[in-house]
Amino acid sequence: MPIENAAKNPLPALTRYTKAVVLTPTIGSLLLCLLALLPASILLLHHGRSADQLRTLATTRTPALQPAPSISANQPRKASTLKHAALYTVPATRPTPTRLKPAFFNENVSSDDLRFLNALAGTPTSTAVRSKDVRALINNVIPYVPFHFGIDYPLTLTLGSILAESSAPVTIRDGRYVVMATLTNHNNLIAQGRRRALLWVDLQTGMSIGAIFFYPSNGEPTPTLSLFSRQVEQSSLAMSQLPPAFLADYKSWLDNASMPILSTRYFINARGDKTVLTHDEDLCAVLPASETCAGRKRQAEDIDLQAANYLGQTHYASNATLRMVHQSE
Question: Which pLDDT tens digit goes with each residue over 161-216?
């Protein structure tokens, strides 16, 4: 076709070119590949420009991280800093003293078994202790173990024999707490004021505690106060672990019987184990003018340490004597 005719009618010319491309496989394949790669190249170029722009933006607008300034002791802190610091600071508190658990008493006596004691209020202790019911009570609540009181003697009989010397009346405080006590020894003027005994009973719970105070003369620590109960199996006790009601009557007994506040103290449990009854009560509540609180505490510590050494050498026997120490050595 002449050129002028092709210009006037281009369709036949394009048709010929298209046929040539389609009919030529190599040229057609290359053209299709170029057409397929063109969109991907455009996307890669656009992504590269975007990454460069973001990197430039971050560099120009974001300042470099700086380490936090340290606060010295001389620099004043901001109020906000102090406010947040208080949220994470544990306040310093004084350590509270360890409170020992109360001693556990087995309930081997019921309140019904103790009703007969109400009728003994005001009766002389010497008369009350000779009754069959009181003797049965002592055998039930006091450990039946040997106790050295000049000679080895059952603890139940030793307590009863000392109480039988007392003319002090049986008292019942608050309609609940029974006290039978020896205040003076009228039968033996030589031994007057040298031995005491106490039987304390709680009518509601049945808790019962006995006590014997005397001055041993065979070289062991003296004077000694032994407390005991068949209802307690605990091996080691402090004074504060005993019932508060008993401690109140015990303090009254010390005052009325003119007994020393500090003395060697033991506790004998149901198994007959004899241990130190440590002085952990308030020893400085009432002090004579000649004593200081610190001096009394040191004296109590020395007494407890001496008693512990003595019991360790006598194997914690209920009838511990100095003779056992010599045999051990």
Answer: 999 999 999 999 999 999 999 986 444 434 445 789 999 999 999 999 999 999 98
Contact 194, 127 (CB under 8 A): no
The secondary structure of 257-268 as a DSSP string is TT--SS-EEEEE
DSSP per-residue string spanning 159-217: HHHHHTT--PBPEEETTTEEEEE----SS-STTTTSEEEEEEEETTT--EEEEEEE---
Q: Which tokens hold the place of 326?
A: 């010599």
Q: How far apart are CA 105 and CA 6, in angstroms?
A: 128
* CA dist 174 → 78, 114, 121, 249, 316 (Å): 63, 15, 12, 12, 37
Mean pLDDT, range 18-22, rounded to an integer: 46
Query: What is the distance between the alpha carbons of residues 197 and 210, in angstroms, rounded to a whole number?
Result: 7
CA proximity to 162, closest of 150, 174, 177: 150
Bridge partner list, 181 = 198
Cβ atoms of 229 and 107 closer than 8 Å: no
What is the C-alpha to C-alpha distance for residues 195 and 15, in angstroms, rounded to an integer? 142
276: DSSP letter: E
What tokens appear for 146 in the block?
């040997």
Residue 296 exposed, middle or buried by CB count within 10 Å (0-12, 13-18, 19+): middle
Beta-strand relationship, 274-278 and 237-238: parallel
Q: How many residues in the chain?
A: 329
196, 181 contact by CB (below 8 A) = yes
